[in-house]
Structures are given as structure tokens and as C-alpha cells.
Amino acid sequence: MGEFDLIARYFTRPSPKAALGVGDDCALLQPAPGTQLAISSDMLVEGRHFFPDVDPFTLGHKALAVNLSDLAACGAKPLAFTLALSLPRVDEDWLASFSRGLLELADAHGCELVGGDTTQGPLNICITVFGEVPVVAGRSQALLRSGARAGDDIYVSGTLGDARLALEALRGRIALPPALLSDARNRLEQPTPRVALGQALRGVASAAIDVSDGLLGDLGHVLRLSKVGASVEAPLVAGLMAVTRHPEWSSELLLSDTLQEYVLAGGDDYELAFTAPPSAREAVAEAARQSGTPVTRIGAIEAQPGLRVRGADGQLLTRRYASFDHFG
Ligand code: ADP
Ligand code: MG
Questions:
Q1: Residue 321, Cβ neighbours under 10 Å: how many?
Q2: Which residues, listed in sequence order, are joined to residue 304 by a DSSP beta bridge?
Q3: Residue 69 class from Cβ within 10 Å (0-12 exposed, 13-18 middle, 19+ buried)?
Q4: Residue 240 lies in a domain
Q5: Does one domain contain both 11 and 115?
Q6: 190 with 298, same domain?
Q7: Residue 80: inside a domain, yes or no?
Q8: Any atom of ligand 1 within 6 Å of the Cβ of 140
Q9: Residue closest to 265 by CA, chosen among 301, 240, 300
Q10: Looking at the structure, do residues 281 and 205 belong to the same domain, yes or no?
Q11: Residue 129 falls inside a structural domain
Q12: Mutate which of 6, 28, 117, 127 to test ligand 1's pocket (most atoms within 8 Å of Cβ)?
């Protein structure tokens, strides 16, 4: 199978929302009147972001999910995406599963595959997503990292730490019961981008980011761009690892310090961390209800620079948590 047959068979779909999809030199997008385009790219590299033997269905899902997560963090509505794919060889079973995982998630979010590039080389997947954000009275409704203000509450959606737990288990560093590993692995390999929550938070949240490299590190980006500091209450975050509610969970599986590290700095969670003034608590709860996404209040923005983590006794934790940095 040649390059063009491969594109035609696995990556050419009807794209009714786009003015022009796969096939020409450029795709053409028509954002709705009164909207801005939100654009983001994420690359997944074999050996760096996924194991070589990962299920191609989940890989297709994750490649798009991490991009949709960026749209969610901006409060954007998914519109379309492009796929740049480097493949060592044509493996039709692999391609069929990969494109199914990718396109099922795309369909679920009405995000159309409108173009891309296909070359031979080491397995590498780069997706660029395009989303729409309304502009109201000349003001973009996009959620930014720079909007947090002293006194705002800090929230995080969903669960944290499970993906890191699965990663450590798959690397053979931790032993887990199979049913529990399977649930944690699902969080690592098929993250849920919080697209509906992100849109529901427009006009409610003061700042937002998606948690890809670990909660504290990503929250640090918000603090830096907003020129504020924060306190996070470790006990409020500690319960956020989903598998601790699994029937086979036992506290003997993981040291509590390690659990705390995974939750605060684990990475690969693809949840939203966001801030909102205390006056918006009811509106935040309504956004959570409306989008069917649990959110937990975990701390507060403060004028004093720096990120402080407080333990159960209110004392500051002194341990530093490194967040993921490819060149760090
Ligand atoms: P060009 O040589 O002009 O870059 P290509 O031959 O690479 O064009 O691609 C032909 C068409 O197929 C283009 O519309 C391109 O966007 C699309 N395309 C290529 N690879 C992919 C892919 N992996 N997924 C979706 N569309 C693709
Ligand atoms: Mg090309």
C-alpha cells in the first residue's frame, strides 16, 4: 500500500464543518462569525510518550485526547485537526486500530480530520487542533493562564495520579493487582479530555491550564503568568487518586509519600486546574454539574509569590516536587 492509498483508506473522512478537508494542498476552515480560532499542537514520540508495544487503538485515542485537552484548557470548542504521522512501515492492522481510536474520539467531539502529512520514519504522531472561542463585545472568552488573582479559589477536575501509578507499574517499579492496574492503565492510555467543562467555565474561571506534566508544575505556570502565588492543601488533593477507591486498593500498595507525589506531580492526568473568585463557587458547581465532571477545590491564590503546599496540620511541606521537563 502506498502513501496515498494509506491516506485515502485510514485518514480520509467526510468533514462537513470544514470548507475543505483532506485532498488539496490546504484544508480550509470557516470559524463561526464572532469566534476566534484556538490552535494547539502536541507530538507523541515512541519511547518517550508511549511504549513501543502500546495498543494502537489507545494510542490513536491518546494522540487526539492530549490535544483536545489543550482546547479544553482554553475553553474552546473543537472544530478540526490535522495529523502528521511518521511510520516505520505500513502495518494495516496497526493503522486500522490506530485510526479507529483516533476517529472515535474525534467523532465524539465533532472534531474533523481535515489534513496532515504522512512520511516514513520512526513512529511519531503530531496533531494540531483547531477550536472556536467566542468573542463577546470585542473580548475573547478564551480561558488563559494569566488571569488568576489573589483571593481566587483553585480547583482541579476529576482524578490525579492514576496515570503515573500505571506508568510506574508498567515499568516494573511497583506491583499492583491486575484489576487495579487495568483501571490505572486506562487513565494513562485513554485520558478523558475535559472539553465540556472547559467550555462551561468560560466567563466563570479566571485562569485555567490542563494538567499534563503534574499538578504543581502546571499550576506554577499559572502563577508565573498571573504574577501571583498560591497555597494548595495536600489533604484535599490526597483523595483524588481514583484507584484508592478500587475494591482491591490497600494502603500497603504504595507509601503515602509516594501517593502524594503521584497526585501532586505525577503527570499525564489531562485534568483541568483552574481558578475562580469565591463569588463564583455556585457557578463553578453549576459548570461541573452541567458538564458531568467532578471538580475539587484544593487551595487559594495568594499575593505572596511562590507555591506553598500545606499538610493536614497546616504546616508547610518542605519537600520539592519536580514536574516533568523533557530537557530538565
Ligand atoms: P503535499 O505534498 O501537498 O503536502 P500530501 O501529498 O502530503 O500533500 O497530502 C495529500 C493530502 O492528504 C493533503 O490534503 C494532506 O492534508 C492529506 N494528508 C496527508 N497525510 C495525512 C494524514 N496522515 N491524515 C490526514 N490527511 C493527510
Ligand atoms: Mg505532504
A1: 18
A2: none
A3: buried
A4: yes
A5: yes
A6: yes
A7: yes
A8: no
A9: 240
A10: yes
A11: yes
A12: 117
CA distance linking residue 265 with residue 211, whole number of Å: 9
Locus of grid cell 475494591: 247
Residues 115 and 174 grouped into a single domain: no
Ligand 2 centre to CA of 15 (Å) is: 19
**What does the pLDDT look like over 17-67, one tens digit per residue?**
989 999 999 999 999 999 999 999 999 999 989 988 999 999 999 999 999
pLDDT digits (tens, 9 = 90+) for 266-285: 999 999 999 999 999 999 99
Cβ of 85 closer than 6 Å to ligand 1, yes or no, is yes
pTM: 0.95
Q: How many angstroms is it from 96 CA to the middle of ligand 1?
A: 18
Q: Which atom of ligand 1 is nearest to the CA of 115?
A: 16
Residues 74-85: pLDDT tens digits?
A: 999 999 999 999
| Same domain flag for 180 and 291 | yes
Closest ligand 1 atom to 24 CA: 14
Ligand 1 pocket: which of 22, 82, 85, 98 to mutate (most atoms within 8 A of CB): 22
Whether 74 lines ligand 1, by a CB cut-off of 6 Å, is no
Count of domains in the chain?
2
Does a structural domain hold residue 49? Answer: yes
DSSP string of 147-207?
G--TT-EEEEES--SHHHHHHHHHTTSS---HHHHHHHHHHHHS----HHHHHHTTTT-SE
Ligand in closest contact with the CA of 98: 1
CA 118 to ligand 2 centroid distance, Å = 7
Spatial distance between the Cα atoms of 241 and 159, rounded to a whole number of angstroms: 5
| Parent domain of 191 | 153-310
